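[Q] Does anyone have a clean structure-token version of this?
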Amino acid sequence: MGAEGSERWVRVAAQAADAKLGSDTLVLDVGDVLAITDHFVITSGANTRQVRTLTEEIEAKVFEADGPKPVAVEGLDDLRWVLLDYGSFVVHVFLDETRRYYELERLWADVPRLEWRPAGEVVAGE
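[A] Here you go.
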């Protein structure tokens, strides 16, 4: 999987989360400090039903964009922290309270953030 394709799928994942009202969706570029993956997509939902919806939407939209299926999925049993591992990127879908507890953004505060455009946002000239 090339870096260009991976970065496109990361943006698709973030946009999919945004479209289903994921809270504070962000993309961290962890590739320079973490050897096992290039990006983290982090989002959260207000309740377990929304966490499941976010997870399903992200997986579906990445696949529709000719992206891969996750090589591993963890956390579907309690829906407090679902991890979709795509190899070159990892999507973390948290329950809001679980996200506040683990504070991944604080742990990775020194890595760059990848800009992504929220779903439906129009850029001048397009």
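[Q] Thanks! Anything notable?
[A] The radius of gyration is 14 Å.
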